[in-house]
Write a structure and sequence with these properties.
By secondary structure, the protein is an alpha+beta fold. It has three domains: 61 residues, OB fold (Dihydrolipoamide Acetyltransferase, E2P), CATH 2.40.50.140; 71 residues, Orthogonal Bundle (DNA polymerase, domain 1); 57 residues, Orthogonal Bundle (Helicase, Ruva Protein, domain 3), CATH 1.10.8. It is 46% helix and 19% strand. The protein has nine helices and five strands; from the N terminus they run βββαββαααααααα. A five-stranded mixed barrel has the order 1-2-3-5-4. A hairpin with a 2-residue loop joins strand 2 and strand 3. Helix 2 crosses helix 3, helix 7 packs across helix 9 and helix 8 crosses helix 9. The chain starts with a strand and ends with a helix.
């Protein structure tokens, strides 16, 4: 199984690229974020890969980071999310932000991806909510509170902060940190703590 490629990017298109490794060209499908990271060809690039084998075809998928590949594997465990839909989702935002959206139950985030309707977005969020806590999120440096109760409380606290005008990228990490530091606290206790944390430089 091919887990990584290092070679010269000879061609790059909207959905994939051709990487020459010692004279052998590999067609690699990738998210728009990974393709942007490869820059303009020709360029020597190192990509992590995942091979998807079907009855009628084999296809390599490439990823700029281990986090992106981990989330790809997780997304494709959901019924209705194939490799191409997973790449469309990964093109929306960094893996850390997508993990935040899953934990917060943000179905609207995923309906922005081609091939994802409200029903599939709901299934994706509900099935992956309990699996996200163990996923590394190098860019955000935070962990999702584990357990169904933790995820629900995180969603409620994040929603409370959003209603007060904060953005999701501001609210989610603070909500996660405050919940983790105050186990057993209810929403009414956590909101003022989160607001205090928001106002602390």
């Amino acid at each position: 199984m091919i887990g990584r490629l290092t070679g010269l990017v000879e061609e790059a298109g909207e959905h994939g690229c051709l990487i020459d490794v010692n004279g052998v060209g590999y067609n690699v499908m990738a998210s728009s974020r990974t393709l942007a990271a490869l820059s303009r060809p020709p360029k020597v690039a190192r990509v992590l890969t995942e091979m998807v084998v079907r009855e009628d075809a084999m296809q390599l998928y490439g990823f700029a980071t281990a986090e992106e590949r981990s989330l790809f594997r997780l997304l494709t465990t959901v019924q209705g999310v194939g490799a191409r839909v997973a790449l469309a989702i990964l093109s929306l935002a960094p893996p850390s932000e997508l993990a935040m959206a899953i934990a917060a139950g943000d179905k609207a985030m995923f309906t922005r991806a081609a091939g994802v309707g409200p029903k599939l977005a709901g299934r994706l969020v509900s099935e992956l909510a309990g699996k996200v806590p163990d996923m590394p999120m190098a860019q955000s440096g935070v962990k999702v509170p584990s357990g169904a109760g933790g995820a629900g409380l995180l969603e409620d606290l994040t929603g409370a902060l959003l209603s007060l005008g904060y953005t999701r990228s501001e609210a989610w990490p603070v909500a996660s940190r405050v919940i983790g530091a105050n186990p057993g606290a209810g929403l009414n206790q956590l909101v003022p703590l989160a607001l205090r944390a928001m106002s602390t430089p």
